[in-house]
What we know:
The chain is an all-alpha fold. It has one domain. About 85% of the residues lie in helices and about 0% in strands. It contains 19 helices and no strands.
Amino acid sequence: xxxxxxxVFGLAFPIALQNLIKTxxxxxxxxxxxxxxxxxxxxxxLAGQVQFVMSxxxxxxxxxxxxxxxxxxxxxxxKTIEKVFGMTLCFISCAGIVFFTAAELFPExxxxxxxxxxxxxxxxxxxxxxxxxxxxxSAFCTGYLYLMRSIERAKIGTVVFACSLVVNVVMNAILIxxxxxxxxMGVRGAALATLLSRCLEFVLVIYYxxxxxxxxxxxxxxxxHWDRLLLKDFLIxxxxxxxxxxxxxxxxSANAAILGQLGSSAAAANSVVRLxxxxxxxMCIGLSAAAGVLVGKAIGEKxxxxxxTYARRMMCLSIAVTICASGTVFCLxxxxxxxxxxxxxxxxxxxxxxxxxxxxxxxQSVSCPIVVGxxxxxxxxxxxxxxxxxxxxxxxxLPGWLGAFVFHLSVKGVFILLMLDEFLKLPLAVxxxxxxxxxxxxxx
Length: 444
């Protein structure tokens, strides 16, 4: 057990720290824009849904690829891993360019999806026109660093994202509030700070990739010349995960859009709750990613009993850390609310939402390591897609939409309906885990 904990926290802690740092970038935007006012906070948060959906697509591509890379890592087949890296980074780079194009050409149409208030839409458009330039850079860097996790090289991502966070926070303060003689740019300042931090990430990743990493290289030939059988395996693993993450991201964005249409107070409160949820789940997500690597590597080594042991222990750790995190948020909910410049209505919504979140997180602490880590490690990606998409769209988005626009429920009532997905997902995820169909070697 001692050796297991050493392995887990050598991998899970850096991954969790990466997620925490990436969330810290969003936190800086929320806290600083929250000091400006509800409109600025709502504009930046709703416009940030584009980055959110893109990041989930990237996570889906790399998660599908990681099923292969983790198992081939167990077999010590570096050449095949390099081929997977090339294919994955090619797809990811194309995705970044697509999102950049959409945000630059159709910013107003995108913002109309999330809000009907002219001031919020105008702020979001100005944010998108600047931050869109960061999408291709962010896509490539995030994809590469996620792939490095799957071969147990997680520390580089922690260093890169930590440097990015420092730059983002400092530039946020200067550009949003107009410090050191700079003009006070508000929401546009937050976008420019994010762009500058992404440029730094790109420089650091390129340096590491070309000068430091000698074990698994990114070879440009593998970007365009793909092994047909490996491409088939990659698509089989990746397509369900990409659809899973994309549908999940679209569903979460739909939830944000539903609440956004109910007014800026609801949108502002929800933007804070989304951030708090990321902070609460950061260690759980890190453990889930580590579970995928450890279980996948054990399966590749033909050690199925060890894979099952890793899976069980990772779930127990996930539950324990999430209980601590959600309990802390519940106890500090009034402190969190008082730290933001929100109106009375938004504060009332927020305290209610944080209370519901405490229960929601406990369900997610079980389903997340199962779906994101364990099932994917063994190639059981299709079931995860159906489970996530089905419970979110049928059990959350649809009831929330009906509650908001057909039955005209209160914001609190709509929020409860939008949080039903994890309660529905939990028993199905546990059942699938117990069938052990995920204990499968997918390498050739």
